[in-house]
Amino acid sequence: MKGEIFIHLPPELDEKLQEIKAEIEALKSDFQPKQPEEYVPLDEAAKRLHVDKSTLHNWRKRGIVRGWQIGNRVYLKWSEVEASIQPLK
What we know:
The chain has 89 residues and is an alpha+beta fold. The chain has four helices and three strands, in the order H-E-H-H-E-E-H. The protein has helices at residues 11-30, 42-49, 53-62, 78-84; strands at residues 39-41, 67-70, 73-77. The protein has a three-stranded antiparallel beta sheet with strand order 1-3-2. The longest helix is centred in the N-terminal third of the chain and has 20 residues, at 11-30. The mean pLDDT is 89.
């Protein structure tokens, strides 16, 4: 084939190369790309949770959820909001 170079490797080196290729393929099959964090403005978080913005403010003051600020806007990291939800006993 045009542009391909063939290199003959010693058998033990070729075996090791095949093992490495197999390990790479196994890692690729298990790979999950990292999902970007979702920062939600307070009004959207309040709508999603069906609560008032003052409730979110109280939860932030009590340390139930943590706020993130950019300029004068406050956001909630949605993964942290979901992690703070507790099952009923």
